[in-house]
């Protein structure tokens, strides 16, 4: 059988197509599953022509993401229906699982698949279906499915209603960077064993690093688990503060656990859902607490799980007809909150006491200098452990760098080219 897997043309910048947030992991698993059955499989990322595709499929599987991106799904179904009128078209994914009746009627597909494909879930994703798969730099992995919570703003309990988990993931590792897609990774009763095996595991002779896309359930975090998370080399650690401001002592206790485990406070993120039941003024109190603790905020704008449109734009005045605005919020407050969070994150990340556009520009410049310098020094054979301070000097910059336990002073030109490298006594 000939199988066509379709990722619609979602409104995602092309450079982010292979970003860990958008990779069509479900389709890649279906690819492996069908190839094991002896099927011929092709992946179409967007609405491509018959000439580009080069074969006529018997079945077409189209994935879906957010409900408010349903128009992209409809366009793909219509496109491939026009090319292959006799092929059966099935839509799966998030939108299909949350709104199956709407999906079938709106897109005109033949079938809708709700939830997780239990057989495809058992296989390794077929990353070779992607362009330049070896440059991907990470592997998406699950140690569990579902969630033990039933938060009213979340659709996980409808997409993955049953919580299931693995005892080990070691045999699945194919990369030095793992991105866990678990909705509640700490709810796995074997999480301590999994974290220990990651801490000790090497892939191609090198330790792996990790990230939990959905963060960690703060209610399940303990000092022991925080230390194991650190030993397993998890980066960009995130915990959620979905509740009221009055929960701040509980949140601070969890942040302290992560700091005690070895994380810097500025590298810790707190998820906050806004445009929701908690009003703007109380959310501001939560934001101020995060600034006091010197942690960053990962803000999440709420949309109902059956929202069919979202034309939000940060640069113009809008109404409920453009995007969902909670009765306790207003367009001005939604955008003001996002602006406050962004500026506060810059201050926390860069160590600024107060935000200014000038300081933000300087921070962006310094990041660019560090990136260019890192590339050049590695090309010269230096094993860099830390780039410390960037200091403007006449006709360029002076940068203090630590290389293999020794300190060096690097002089850069105004266009960030290395002029000299001097070992400091």
TL;DR of this structure?
Helix content is 32%, strand content 21%. The protein contains 12 helices and 19 strands.
Q: What do you see in this structure?
A:
- This protein is an alpha/beta fold and 425 residues long.
- The protein folds into three domains: 2-112, Rossmann fold (3-Layer(aba) Sandwich), CATH 3.40.50; 129-354; 358-423, Roll (Nuclear Transport Factor 2, Chain: A), CATH 3.10.450.
- The chain is 32% helix and 21% strand.
- The protein contains twelve helices and 19 strands.
- It has helices spanning 25-36, 50-53, 70-83, 94-98, 100-107, 156-159, 191-200, 223-231, 248-261, 280-293, 331-350, 357-379; strands at residues 2-7, 40-45, 59-62, 88-91, 111-112, 139-141, 144-145, 164-165, 177-180, 202-203, 206-207, 209-212, 238-240, 269-274, 296-301, 384-393, 396-403, 406-413, 418-423.
- The strands form six sheets. Strands 2-1-3-4-5 form a five-stranded parallel sheet, sandwiched between helices. Strands 16-17-18-19 form a four-stranded antiparallel sheet, covered by helices on one side. A three-stranded parallel sheet has the order 6-9-12, with no helix packed on it.
- α7 packs parallel to α8 and α8 packs across α9 (248-261).
- The radius of gyration is 24 Å and the shape is globular.
- The N and C termini lie far apart (69 Å).
- The mean pLDDT is 92.
